[in-house]
Every structure is written in structure tokens, then in C-alpha cells.
From TrEMBL:
The lineage of its organism: Eukaryota, Metazoa, Chordata, Craniata, Vertebrata. This is Coiled-coil domain-containing protein 81. GO terms for cellular component: microtubule organizing center. Pfam families: HU-CCDC81_euk_1 (PF14908), HU-CCDC81_euk_2 (PF18289). InterPro entries: CCD81 (IPR026295), CCDC81_HU_dom_2 (IPR040673), HU-CCDC81 (IPR028034). It comes from the Eukaryota. Residues 11-65, 84-154 form the CCDC81 HU domain. It comes from Corvus brachyrhynchos (American crow).
Length: 155
């Protein structure tokens, strides 16, 4: 397999992050095979005597990565919602690389994340303009940037 160099990896993940942002701003979920799913959920909350609907982005780690985690992180998307898979061709075009390099880059990165989870190594995986996937010990969670949250929620 072709192993992309750092500038190509960065270009691929920047394009993936841009695609995630684009989909979530349209309130569409996206599934990145072997990494996880991003979606926007709607929750109702009571503010005074009014019910307000809040929208917030969520991330769910892929099953292959969840297998090495503790049980408290085993939640799935509400109602088994089907999400569109990442469009590798669009990412490749945006990153100016081949589709094969995109696939290799994503698989290589998720393989590394799997081994970090398995060994309990802490990692911060940055997704440009979206947030940081934090892996600490055997748990993983997505911390979205405030600017991104404000865009998604319309605040």
C-alpha cells in the first residue's frame, strides 16, 4: 500500500474535517469507516416555561475502536439512524491526492488510534475547525471547538 507523507496526511485530514463541517452545518450525519460517526442531535430542554429545541453535534466511535474501550462508551446513534459514508472521491479531490491515498491515510490513522486505545496511550487528534478527538487511557471523546458549536447551533 501507498503510505502518504505528512503533507498528504495533513491535506487528507483537513479535507475530511472540512467535509464533516459541511455535512453537520447541513444537519446531515456522516460516517467515517473505521473511525466513527458524526451527527447533529436535537434535544428539548425547558427554559422557564418554554420548551426550547437545542441542536448539538455528537461523535460516536466506530465499533472496531470501541472494542478496546470500557463499556460506558458503547452508545450508538439514536434510533439506529443510517448515515452517509464519507465520500472518498470528494476528499481526494479536495486534498489533491488519489482516492487510494485517502483510504490508506484513514486506515493508517485509525489503526494507530486503535493501538493507542489498546495500550492506554493518550492522544489528541486534531480535526481542523471541528475539534479534538481525545484518547485518554482507554476512553475516547470528541471535544468540539466553540466556533464550530456556534455555527452548528446557529448561535
Amino acid at each position: 500500500p501507498v503510505c502518504p507523507c505528512f503533507p498528504e496526511r495533513k491535506a487528507v485530514w483537513d479535507a475530511v474535517a472540512g467535509y464533516i463541517q459541511q455535512q453537520l452545518l447541513l444537519h446531515k450525519g456522516i460516517r467515517i469507516p473505521t473511525l466513527g460517526s458524526f451527527d447533529v442531535v436535537h434535544t428539548e430542554t425547558l427554559v422557564g416555561s418554554k420548551t426550547v429545541i437545542l441542536q448539538r453535534p455528537v461523535f460516536h466511535l466506530a465499533r472496531n475502536l470501541r472494542g478496546v474501550q470500557s463499556p460506558e462508551n458503547e452508545d450508538d446513534l439514536a434510533g439506529g439512524k443510517k448515515l452517509e459514508s464519507l465520500q472518498y472521491a470528494k476528499v481526494a479531490m479536495e486534498a489533491s491526492v488519489s482516492r487510494r491515498i485517502v483510504e490508506c491515510c484513514i486506515l493508517g490513522t485509525t489503526s494507530l488510534l486503535y493501538h493507542c486505545l489498546e495500550k492506554g496511550v493518550s492522544v489528541a487528534f486534531l480535526m481542523r475547525d471541528v475539534g479534538v478527538l481525545l484518547i485518554e487511557g482507554s476512553t475516547a471523546q470528541m471535544r468540539f471547538y466553540l466556533d464550530f458549536l456556534e455555527k452548528v447551533t446557529g448561535e
